[in-house]
Specification:
21 strands, four-stranded parallel β-sheet, six-stranded mixed β-sheet, 4 domains, Rossmann fold, alpha/beta, 22 helices, 39% helix
Length: 606
C-alpha cells in the first residue's frame, strides 16, 4: 500500500475500511500519508508535464486503488486568469484568479468529489449521506448519480435555492434541517452509523482530490509556485488540501519553494482566523454563524486544526472581512475581469484589496486568488447590492430619459447597503444635495418633488431612511416618468382584521378627477383593500384590470424593515405590466403598486 490514514493529533493509524472520516479515539481529522518512493514509481513525470490540464492527470497522487472504478465528470483544468484590471487598480502586476467555478457543477468541490465517490465505490457503498451548505450537495449528488449510488443530503434550512435546484435535479434525497451546518454534520454522522451509509464530506479523501488545484496552479505558472495563495475558509478542507498539493510537488522536486497562504473569513464566521491571530492552535466553536457568504458558514470547521497548521507552516496570515467587502469585490471581479463568483469566492480579492491598501505586497509578487464557486450558485446574494433594472415603455423618448438622467450610473452609484444614513430629510434642497453626493444624480423639480414626497411618507411611518431605501424611491419615481396622465389616485384607506374573521377595507380614490369610495371584505388586509379599490374603479371603468401576480420581498431584518411589493397586472387587451413599490408598510406598498400599474395600463390604452 503506497498510502496510509493517520490521525493528525494522536497519530493513530487506520484502515480505510474502519474509518475515512475522523479518528475513532480522539475525534480529530485524519491525514493521508504517502510513501513517496512508491509514488515516484507510479508517476510518469514526462506525461505529467506534457499532457493536457485535468484533475485526472494526477491519478498517481491520489489514494485510488482501482482505476476501473473512477467516477469523473472531467473536473479540473480550470483557468488561471491574469486579473490585469484589478491588479492595475491595486498596483499589482501579477495578480491571478483561479476560477474554480468552471468545474462541472460550478464549484471546486468536484475535484474532491471525484476521489471521494470513487473511494465510496471501491468500498462497496450502498448509499452515501452527508451534510452541506449547498455546494457539496450539488457536487456529490452529480457524481453519485453517474455512479448509481443513492445519496442523502442534509442542508441547513434556507440554503440558496440555486444550489438545491441542482442537487434535486441530480436525484439526491434532500433533507432541510432547522439548524446550522454543524447540526447537519452531526446528524449525517448518526445516519451513517445507524444505516451503514458511506459518510461523505470534508474528510480525508475529499482533500486528496482538492489538492489538484495547487498542482494546476504550478503548471499554469510554468512550473513555479506563486508567492501567495489567497483562499476563503469554511470547513477548511480545501485550504489545507491546497497547501498539501504544493508540499507534494516540493517533495517530488517539481518546485523549489512553497507559497505563503492567506486565509480569509467573513466576520460573521471568523473562527479559524480569530484563533490564528490570537496565536492559538485550536479554535472556539461558533454556534450561530451570521454571514451572507453561505458557502463558508461553518462555525465548527472539521479541518480547522489543519488550516491553523498550514498557516503556521507556510508563514501565512489570516484576514477577516465584512460581508460588504466581499459583495463589493464580487462586483469588481464581474465588471473588471468578467468573472462572476458566489460571494464566498470573492473573499480572496477583497482580502488582497485590503492588504494592498496597507502596502503589504510588492508590485511583482505573484498572487493567486482561489475563486471557489460560480456566481450562479447564489445569485440572490449579489442582488443584495444590485437593485432590479428599471423598466421603460418601448419608445425612444424613454431611452432619452434613461440617458439624460444616467440611470445606469445611478444604479452603480447606489450600491450602498442597508445601513441607516438619514433620520429624516427635511427639505428638497437637502434631498438634492444628498442625491448629488450619493448617487451622482441631478433631477428636475417634478421628479425631485416625487422623490421628496415618498421620503416624507417613510418618515411619517417612523422609518429611518437607508441608502437602499432611497435607491428604491428614486427608481420608483423614475419609473413613473412614462405616466403622462394620472387617471387614478388613492387618497386614503382604512382596514381592519382579526385572527378568525375576514378583513374589511374601505378606500377613497380620485378617478378622472372625481372622488369615489368603496368597501369590501377579503381573506387578508391587502386582499380586502385591492378588492375595494377595484370595486371603486369599476364604476364606469372599461379597462377590466386584473391582478395576475403578487410578490412581497423584505430586504432588511426587524419589525421596521422595508417592504418591496411587485405585482403583475393585465387589462382586457392583454397589455401586461410589472410594477414595484417600496414602503415600511406592506399595505401601503401594495396599494401604491396597484395605483402605478393601473395608471401605466390606462396610458397604454389611450
Amino acid at each position: 500500500m503506497f498510502y496510509k490514514l493517520k490521525c493528525i493529533t494522536c497519530s493513530k493509524e487506520y484502515r480505510e475500511q474502519d474509518t475515512a472520516t475522523n479518528c475513532l479515539d480522539c475525534g480529530d481529522p485524519l491525514d493521508c500519508l504517502y510513501d513517496f518512493e512508491q509514488v515516484k514509481k507510479r508517476l510518469n513525470v514526462y506525461n505529467l508535464k506534457n499532457s493536457s490540464l485535468s484533475a485526472l492527470k494526477y491519478l498517481a497522487l491520489y489514494p485510488i486503488l482501482d482505476f476501473d472504478k473512477i467516477v469523473s465528470l472531467e473536473e479540473g483544468g480550470t483557468p488561471l486568469l491574469h486579473a490585469k484590471n484589478i491588479g492595475k487598480d491595486l498596483g499589482l502586476n501579477q495578480l491571478y484568479i483561479k476560477n474554480e467555478g468552471a468545474n462541472p457543477t460550478g464549484v471546486f468541490k468536484d475535484r474532491g468529489t471525484m476521489v471521494e465517490v470513487t473511494k465510496a465505490k471501491e468500498l462497496g457503498a450502498e448509499a452515501i449521506c452527508f451534510a452541506s451548505t449547498g455546494n457539496m450537495a450539488a457536487s456529490v449528488a452529480a457524481y453519485a448519480s453517474i455512479a448509481g449510488i443513492p445519496c442523502y443530503v442534509l442542508v441547513p434550512e434556507g440554503t440558496p435555492i440555486g444550489k438545491l435546484s441542482q442537487t434535486l435535479s441530480y436525484g439526491a434525497r434532500v433533507i432541510q434541517v432547522r439548524g446550522t451546518y454543524s447540526d447537519c454534520a452531526k446528524l449525517a454522522e448518526e445516519m451513517a452509523e445507524k444505516y451503514g451509509f458511506y459518510l461523505a464530506g470534508d474528510y480525508v479523501f475529499r482533500g486528496e482530490g482538492q489538492k489538484s488545484q495547487a498542482y494546476e496552479i504550478v503548471e499554469q505558472l510554468l512550473w513555479k509556485a506563486p508567492d501567495y495563495v489567497v483562499c476563503p475558509v469554511g470547513c477548511g478542507t480545501n485550504f489545507a488540501a491546497i497547501w498539501k498539493g504544493f508540499v507534494d510537488f516540493k517533495k517530488l522536486g517539481l518546485i523549489d519553494k512553497l507559497p505563503k497562504l492567506i486565509a480569509v473569513q467573513p466576520t460573521g464566521c471568523n473562527v479559524v482566523v480569530k484563533a490564528f491571530n490570537e496565536k492559538k492552535m485550536d479554535f472556539e466553536v461558533l454556534e450561530k454563524p451570521n454571514t451572507v457568504c453561505s458557502a463558508v458558514s461553518a462555525g465548527n470547521p472539521l479541518d480547522g486544526k489543519k488550516i491553523l497548521a498550514a498557516l503556521h507552516e507556510s508563514e501565512g496570515i489570516g484576514l477577516e472581512l465584512r460581508d460588504r467587502e466581499a459583495l463589493d469585490a464580487g462586483q469588481a471581479m464581474a465588471r473588471e475581469e468578467g468573472v462572476f463568483v458566489e460571494v464566498s469566492g470573492a473573499l480572496p480579492i477583497a482580502g488582497v484589496k485590503k492588504l494592498a491598501e496597507e502596502n503589504f505586497f510588492n508590485p511583482d509578487d505573484v498572487i493567486v486568488c482561489v475563486a471557489t464557486g460560480n456566481g450562479l450558485k447564489d445569485p440572490v446574494s449579489a442582488l443584495k447590492i444590485l437593485p432590479e433594472p428599471g423598466t421603460i415603455e418601448p419608445n425612444l423618448d424613454e431611452v432619452d430619459n434613461f440617458l439624460k438622467y444616467k440611470l445606469y450610473e445611478i444604479k452603480s452609484a447606489g450600491i450602498g447597503g442597508k445601513e441607516v444614513v438619514w433620520e429624516k430629510i427635511d427639505s428638497k434642497e437637502e434631498l438634492k444635495e444628498i442625491l448629488s453626493q450619493e448617487f451622482h444624480a441631478n433631477f428636475e423639480d417634478k421628479i425631485l418633488g416625487e422623490i421628496f414626497k415618498d421620503c416624507q411618507e417613510f418618515s411619517a411611518k417612523g422609518k429611518k431612511l437607508s441608502k437602499s431605501d432611497l435607491q428604491n424611491i428614486i427608481e420608483e419615481a423614475l419609473s413613473e416618468m412614462s405616466i403622462k396622465e394620472k387617471m387614478l389616485e388613492v387618497l386614503d384607506f382604512d382596514v381592519t382584521s382579526s385572527m378568525y374573521g375576514a378583513a374589511h377595507g374601505s378606500i377613497k380614490i380620485r378617478m378622472n378627477g372625481k372622488e369615489k369610495e368603496a368597501e369590501a371584505e377579503g381573506v387578508g388586509t391587502v386582499d380586502a383593500l385591492i378588492t375595494a379599490l377595484r370595486k371603486a374603479i369599476n364604476h364606469g371603468d372599461e379597462m377590466e384590470v386584473r391582478l395576475k401576480d403578487y410578490n412581497v420581498e423584505i430586504n432588511t431584518g426587524g419589525v421596521d424593515a422595508t417592504v418591496k411589493v411587485a405585482i403583475t397586472m393585465q387589462d382586457k387587451n392583454q397589455n401586461k405590466v410589472v410594477v414595484t413599490a417600496t414602503s415600511p408598510d406592506v399595505i401601503v406598498a401594495s396599494i401604491n403598486a396597484f395605483e402605478k400599474g393601473y395608471n401605466i395600463l390606462w396610458n397604454k390604452n389611450q
